[in-house]
Amino acid sequence: MMAPFLALLKRDLLLAFRHRGELANPLLFFLVVVTLFPLGVSPEEALLRKIAPGVIWIAALLAALYSLENMFRSDFDDGSLEQMALSPYPLSLLVLAKVTAHWLVSGLPMLLLAPLLGLFLVMPASAMGVLVLTLLIGTPLLSLIGSIGVALTVGLRRGGLLLTLLVLPLYIPVLIFATNAVSAAAAGMPVTGQLYFLAAMLVLALTLVPLATAAALRISLS
User: Mind telling me which residue stretches traverse the membrane in this protein (predicted)?
Assistant: First the structure.
């Protein structure tokens, strides 16, 4: 079963790197939102240190939402999605490959850039590791949850607004627990509870979301 997974993952990564402009857009959006925030609020270090976890995570959430619509769109337009649905391999496995590719080209760059933005926002060193850990757990969650909304709206011409309305409420628990964990780490408080909850959500999403997304795709293709 790993052969079709790896083949589709490789295909999606190659297609993403052939369109470097689209690849860079979510990362640039993430970077611009975080760097402009001090100009719009205040450059005062105490304030920036306090709001840094929320700023970085809100920017990551919006950047992930910005990049979601392209997850299945090109495959739907050229008929590849129908071929995946008709293939002898489980559609949920192929969905997981596409979600993994989406995270590698959108979530992973944000994860690597986050420590630099944390330094820019004067985030304490004690919270930096927790910030990276929450992004490591949380950004795959954003891709997985978003895939359900994309699958439901892929057949619509202008499904962007509907996609936002479907997905954004499901992102709120991830945002709350992730920002709370980073803020608690900055204050020297334990964060194991928040991290365990995020990890449990990720395990649950890895188990159920590919099945739900595959069912949603079949509905959209019917």
Answer: 21-39, 51-68, 89-122, 128-154, 161-189, 195-217
- The boundaries of the domain holding residue 142 are 2-221
Q: Which two tokens stand for residue 67?
A: 């990049």
Tally of CB atoms within 10 A around 106:
28
DSSP 79: T
Output the six-digit token pair for 116.
């630099």
Residue 30 to residue 57: CA distance in whole angstroms: 9
98 membership: H or E segment, kind and range = helix 91-102
Of 64-68, 151-155, 207-211, the range with the highest mean pLDDT is: 207-211
167, two tokens: 């997905």
The larger pLDDT score, comparing residue 59 to residue 157, is at: 59
Structural domains in the chain (count): 1
For 93-113, the pLDDT digits (tens) are 999 999 999 999 989 999 999
pTM for this entry = 0.91
